[in-house]
Design brief:
The complex is a heterodimer of chains A (about 110) and B (about 120).
Chain A (H helix, E strand, L loop, with lengths): L3 E3 L3 E4 L5 E7 L5 E8 L3 E10 L2 E4 L6 E7 L2 E6 L8 E8 L6 E2 L3 E5 L1
Parallel strand pairs in A: 2-11
Antiparallel strand pairs in A: 1-3, 3-8, 4-5, 4-9, 5-6, 7-8, 9-10, 9-11
Chain B lengths: L3 E2 L4 E5 L4 E7 L4 E9 L6 E7 L4 E4 L2 E6 L4 E6 L8 E9 L9 E3 L3 E6 L1
Parallel strand pairs in B: 2-11
Antiparallel strand pairs in B: 1-3, 3-8, 4-5, 4-9, 6-7, 7-8, 9-10, 9-11
Classes of the chains: A mainly beta (about 110), B mainly beta (about 120).
């Protein structure tokens, strides 16, 4: 089975802190994604990457950046966390046009 | 602009009855549709999918119907069980001629509660 692992289940950070969310997949997938889930808004795409060192903005990239130095690892960075970035963050990966596999999510609270 | 819409935020169904979850989309370039199920504090898990060349796909208790002319799909769960209580997201993907064809656009979700 595909395994997508997110490094933290719960994080509490302060406004202005730099936050790193890490995601690792074990199936050699080319494509990796970061979504956030908010009540009433569904899953919204922040950034995605279709190859090492390649990235593209999703629908809501403002306030975020990403890094993909190795194929299996995709990091989401909040340069200066704000309270409106409190959310559930979900990483996913896929090979080609198959279904996405999601990690368990990171619930981030910014105080 | 919400390209994939789930207009019912919640649905309550009795155990053993049919659950019908609906989804509408606006982008005619979508050619593949998926349903995901999500429990609290867990990541979404894939449930069932359908290609635009079909109008129905069945997997056990789950059936997805696609009406391309109406840009509408629905998920039927028969019979509903208490373990089906979760949030259900529909998602859509562009065809291979759309850039970044593996990208999924999700709806806002419908919370299904199956009561005893």
């Amino acid at each position: 089975d595909v395994k997508v692992t997110q490094s933290s289940r719960y994080l509490v950070k302060r406004t202005g802190e730099k936050v790193f969310l890490e995601c690792v997949q074990d199936m050699d997938h080319e494509n990796m994604f970061w979504y956030r889930q908010d009540p009433g808004l569904g899953l919204r795409l922040i950034y995605f990457s279709y190859d090492v060192k390649m990235k593209e903005k999703g629908d809501i990239p403002e306030g975020y950046s990403v890094s993909r130095e190795k194929k299996e690892r995709f990091s989401l960075i909040l340069e200066s966390a704000s309270t409106n970035q409190t959310s559930m963050y979900l990483c996913a990966s896929v090979s080609g046009r198959e279904k996405l596999f999601f990690g368990s999510g990171t619930q981030l609270s910014v105080l | 602009d919400q390209q994939v819409k789930q207009n019912s935020p919640s649905l309550s169904v009795q155990e053993g009855r049919i659950s019908i979850l609906n989804c509408d989309y606006t982008n005619s370039m979508f050619d593949y549709f998926l349903w995901y199920k999500k429990y609290p504090a867990e990541g979404p898990t894939f449930l069932i999918s359908i290609s635009s060349i079909k109008d129905k796909n069945e997997d056990g208790r789950f059936t997805v119907f696609l009406n391309k002319s109406a840009k509408h799909l629905s998920l039927h769960i028969v019979p509903s069980q208490p373990g089906d209580s979760a949030v259900y997201f529909c998602a859509a993907r562009g065809d291979r001629y759309t850039g970044t064809a593996s990208k999924l656009t999700f709806g806002t979700g419908t919370r299904l509660q199956v009561t005893l």
